[in-house]
């Protein structure tokens, strides 16, 4: 990726400078003053079909607005040979000669300065990622699933990370985050507005923004993430030191720090008061519904809690207890160097079914019923009230107790594409799951595509983390610290799997 746009945009800036973009962005995107908003309302319509259509583009060469859906801006570009236009919804520059949107650091700086100036004067409220992931931004992604053009020989976004001393747990999570589609788009658009300007060197989000620029700059030599490691140690002190840490624990800690550093610039969500509208919550936060049903009167008490990931047990309680007994007796059966190599296997769907099935709480865990007003035996069931854009599944392979520490190496089969419809709260009744409507079952909104897998190799005492990432729809790569190598989809699906990352399928990119 060139940070200074394409050759056509550079040629345009040489001839006409940046003033055309500055005018379009100021009057028809920011529209900070009341006069500018009136001008925008009166002027923003397609000059061909005379309609106020979504995704209107303004030609940078002349005074012309054309809609993208009916391809009137494309027709204007072809006839007039005006190959550059600005999307008035997002401020992105479209090059029709290249056939894609192009990123330009100078124009983005102009746009950011205009947003900051307008916010400082109280003329706009939000500078950073004001979009709701259910509205216009997602519509853009749905309508343009091939927004990235990557050839088989492309190395954009592929870069190794130097291990700074047992930091493979951090490197694999960084690889997964840098290949998360919406997070990548957010940071490459430089949308982070730092809330720690007086001490920006301590902002983890600023460092991540720099890291994304490094990854997508086209440089191929491994990156040394020493600044990121320092900030992780500073903001998550329980991860400080050169001991091997848990990749899942680092993932949650990283999201938490990013969330805290972004939280000040976003108001709380009106639809979910439990989280804000920062980029982390927009991408990773889902809603988990807990239904507790009284076995006497069938009264249901419901609570909904936000989540960033879902931790899944790997087998039935009976099988797990048998394994525990084997370990406690000190025999070598099924155990080698701290790893349980039991032959049984399971699937991700089986784990999700166990996670969402109704559980009888028993007589020793009675809960006060809101209707009966006394303690009653109950059942509890967890379901998905709201699915996140990116779902992370944590397979609980590590068990710790006062008597033993062990790793569970049960093989878990996970799919390339996952449909979460069966686990939605809307399909629950007192008897478990019910059939959804045809529209619900066919909803693309519940379907996911795999894009990253974190694996742990070795034992609980001595192990190593690696990561598979998808750089292209059918191109997978294995990230082993500084080493990046080509992988096949089958190698990914055959891997042990510790953290599984899926994004909603309508975010599919080519």
Automatic annotation (TrEMBL):
Domain UBP-type: 4-121
Chief location bin: nucleus
UniProt cross-references to PROSITE patterns, sorted A to Z: USP_1, USP_2, USP_3, ZF_UBP
Catalytic activity: Thiol-dependent hydrolysis of ester, thioester, amide, peptide and isopeptide bonds formed by the C-terminal Gly of ubiquitin (a 76-residue protein attached to proteins as an intracellular targeting signal)
Record keyword Hydrolase present: yes
CDD domains reported for this sequence: Peptidase_C19D
EC numbers on record: 3.4.19.12
Location relative to the cell: Nucleus
Top-level taxon of origin: Eukaryota
Keyword Amino-acid biosynthesis: no
InterPro entries: Papain-like_cys_pep_sf (IPR038765), Peptidase_C19_UCH (IPR001394), Ub_carboxyl-term_hydrolase (IPR050185), USP (IPR028889), USP_CS (IPR018200), Znf_RING/FYVE/PHD (IPR013083), Znf_UBP (IPR001607)
Matching Pfam families: UCH, zf-UBP
Recorded family membership: Belongs to the peptidase C19 family. UBP8 subfamily.
UniProt-recorded name of the protein: Ubiquitin carboxyl-terminal hydrolase
